[in-house]
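Minutes, structural biology subgroup

Action item carried over from last meeting: produce the structure token record for Aspartyl/glutamyl-tRNA(Asn/Gln) amidotransferase subunit C (Pararhodobacter marinus). EB confirmed the sequence was re-checked against the source entry. Recorded below for completeness.
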Amino acid sequence: MSTIDIETARRVAKLARIRVADDSLPQLAQELSGILTFMEQLGEVDVTGVEPMTSVTPMRLKRRPDAVTDGDIQNKILSNAPDAREGFFAVPKVVE
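Output recorded by EB:
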């Protein structure tokens, strides 16, 4: 069973850019430990032969053909560019 200490909870909050008061860190550490415990329990479940599902109700995802298209609107797109040359966006050189 994984447990999160207060320093780890402080670091996770900092990495997530969440301001957490020092007196709230023990509660955060406890909640994070609970999440890890739950994840470990899920890892113990045998899912052999179980197909992934997209929803709890059976439904088929809408699909479209996987065909490469360029949209045939190059001129329309390039008309918005401040500088376009030879069918491409022209940008200032940034690396020498």
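Discussion: The chain has three helices and two strands.
Next step: EB to file the record with the rest of the batch.
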